[in-house]
Amino acid sequence: MEEQDSETQSSGSGGEEETLKLEPEGLRHDVEDQHVLQFLDSLDGYITLMDSLSLTLRQGWLELASARHSMGASRVNSALLNLKFHSASTSLQVTRNDVDSEANEANFTLCKWASSNSGHSSAGEKFREDKLQTKHDSPDLRHRSKSQFSDETSVQSGASLVADDHVQRERSKSLSVFGTLVSPKLRAAQLSFETALEMLVEIANTRSTMLSAFNRVKKGLEDIKS
Amino acid sequence: MDTVVGFLLAGVGNVDLRRKTNYLIVDSKTTVKQIEDAFKEFTSRDDIAIVLISQYVANMIRFLVDSYNKPVPAILEVPSKDHPYDPGRDSVLSRVKYLFSAESVASGRR
Questions:
Q1: Which of A22, A140, B39, B98 is most buried, with most CB under 10 Å away?
Q2: Is 0.80 surpassed by the pTM of this model?
Q3: Taking CA atoms, what residue in A is nearest to B96?
């Protein structure tokens, strides 16, 4: 190592410039390798998640078929779908990463079972409604906590109970399209498709990462060619 | 149909004041034109972030799906009950497999 150091020093100013020129290229290769690794990781994640999604969907279809068998084909039917005005109870929040214009990466967050009472509320408002119901310092919850509970953990468990009740109500509302009394298999199918939905949001985020990493790698290859 | 019914149970169904839905059930009577129109409509709406399409249905409008390249709404091809997922037909994977082609590797090495 010492001999190599003396050689670089003895080459004089020209050698120092050469050493300095090598460093940015080395750094560029490291960055390109990082993009390639990110691309390959996200590609692997995407394919793995698609496999898991297939399994979850298969379970959901089986449960739906069992529900149809027990309740009758006329009761589990697309003809019963609600065509009255209503908003989606489950929505998405999208944030865009515009720092790097070539990356153009979007991030999706699932907001499950927000209130569907107000037809014109946006996804953001639904998310805020969800947050308000779980926040422990909101007035209604504070009032409830004073009368019944005394410590912070009790307030939080109270808030989560309220959120759970809300979620159960929304689930029942969704199931009520197929009648008041439904088969447990239909409820199980609902949970399977909820899980599938969570996976799909993960797949969407992985897809976004993969495509932005792909664009960076492609640009790197084009720079090398030029 | 079961895929749409399942996801509607999960709470993603939306019907607006004009009774327009955010989903389309494809059956034997649905034409390719109807599927194309629905795809164009869903991909141009501001209130849709992800479009789920069965890969079997996507194959009917493959040119349209493959030529779509906006980040939002994201197009996700999902398996259907009668047609399993084929990674070779996925539009996203088709787009990125260019990196693994012999031509791109050879040109990078020059």
A1: B39
A2: no
A3: A214
- The dihedral region occupied by A96, where left means phi > 0, alpha psi between -120 and 50, and beta the remainder, is beta
In sequence order, what are the beta bridge partners of A109?
A93
- Tell me the CB-side half-sphere exposure of residue B110, using CA atoms within 13 A: 9
pLDDT tens-digit series, residues B21-50: 888 989 889 999 999 999 999 999 888 999
The residue count of chain A comes to: 226
- Cα torsion A80, A66, B86, B29: sign: negative
Q: Distance (Å, rounded) from C-alpha B75 to C-alpha B73? A: 6
Look at A113 and B95 and tell me if their CB atoms are within 8 Å. no
**Between B110 and A128, where is the model more confident?**
B110
Reply yes or no: is the peptide bond before residue B73 cis, omega within 30 of 0: yes
- CA A207, CA B74: separation in Å to the nearest integer? 8
Nearest residue on chain B to A76, judged by CA atoms? B5
Please give, one letter per residue, the 3-state secondary structure of chain A: CHHHHHHHHHCHHHHHHHHHHHHHHHHHHHHHHHHHHHHHHHHHHHHHHHHHHHHHHHHHHHHHHHHHHHHCCCCCCHHHCCCCCECCCCEEEEEEECCCCCCCEEEEEEECCCCCCCCCCCHHHHHHHHHHHHCCCCHHHHHHHHHHCCCHHHHHHHHHHHHHHHHHHHHHHHHHHHCCCCCHHHHHHHHHHHHHHHHHHHHHHHHHHHHHHHHHHHHHHHHHHC
Task: Mark which residues 37-96 of B lie under 8 Å from A by CB.
Answer: 47, 49-50, 52, 71-72, 74, 76, 78-79, 81, 84-85, 87, 90, 92-93, 95-96
Q: What is the ipTM of this complex?
A: 0.87
